[in-house]
Design a protein that fits this description.
It holds the Pfam family LmeA. By secondary structure, the protein is an alpha+beta fold. It has 6 helices and 11 strands. It has helices at residues 2-38, 53-59, 93-98, 117-123, 184-192, 230-233, and strands spanning 45-48, 61-74, 77-90, 105-116, 130-133, 139-147, 150-163, 166-174, 196-199, 210-215, 218-229.
Length: 238
């Protein structure tokens, strides 16, 4: 009986070791495949959740996979961090271990992109632009604008959204007293200068539409996509 228990224990240890080893290989190979297709360096991190990996892998179905990629570039924006939470994922075992991701599909993908203020300002040719969070999660931007021969620091609330793979900021109103005793007409000119748009392409995931909020000095874009295929999840035509 003792020998049987020892044998079972050794078998369990070997199975757990094989499970962790297989998971590590699949995560590394999948990350490399996505990096090659999306033309990004370094390869994104891939975390396959749940136990056991081998049972999920044999079926080719996974409950939850996380993709992360940091310090990305997109149309003048730099330092973008991306996290994609994939649920109800299908990925054949041969593809997972062979470094192929073309057949990767997910029932749902929750994507978060974080864009620092400094990056946003540089990408919009507004190096002094800074993002902050206002009341009720309103997005505010502070910068220096020029109108009627005046250059003054201003803070304004903006509407922020992502549509058609493009981040859009639209000035709504100045916050606080009008700087330098500006009249309402001149204030409107300042607000109109706070209309910006920048495409969110060249990223390892496509963000067709989503909501936007400020987290400190970082702009956070969140999007949810259902019935995702790898050709749609990973940006094509790079």
């Amino acid at each position: 009986m003792r020998k049987l228990l020892i044998a079972l224990f050794i078998l369990a240890v070997l199975l757990v070791g094989a499970d962790f080893a297989g998971r590590a290989i699949a995560e590394s190979k999948t990350g490399e495949a996505i990096a090659q297709r999306a033309s990004i360096t370094p390869a994104p991190g891939v975390d396959i959740h749940g136990f056991s990996f081998l049972w999920q892998a044999v079926q080719g179905e996974y409950g939850h996979i996380t993709l992360t990629a940091n310090d990305l570039r997109s149309n003048g924006l730099t330092g973008i961090d991306i996290a994609a939470e994939l649920y109800d994922v299908t990925l054949p075992l041969s593809d997972a271990l062979g470094g192929r991701a073309d057949q990767l599909t997910a029932g749902r993908a929750d994507v978060t992109a974080r864009i620092p203020s400094e990056s946003l300002g540089t990408g919009l040719n507004q190096p002094r632009l800074r993002v902050t969070s206002g009341a009720d999660n309103a997005v505010r931007v502070s910068t220096t604008l020029s109108a009627a021969g005046q250059s003054l620091p201003v803070t304004a609330e903006v509407s922020a959204s992502v549509t058609d793979n493009t981040l859009r900021l639209t000035g709504e109103r100045l916050v606080g007293e009008l700087p330098g005793g500006l009249n309402a007409s001149l204030a409107d000119q300042f607000v109109r200068q706070l209309n910006f748009s920048v495409p969110l392409t060249d990223l390892p995931v496509t963000i067709a539409s989503g909501s936007v909020r400020a987290d400190g000095s970082t702009l956070v874009v969140t999007a949810e996509t259902r019935n995702v295929q790898i050709g749609r999840l990973i940006s094509a035509g790079r």
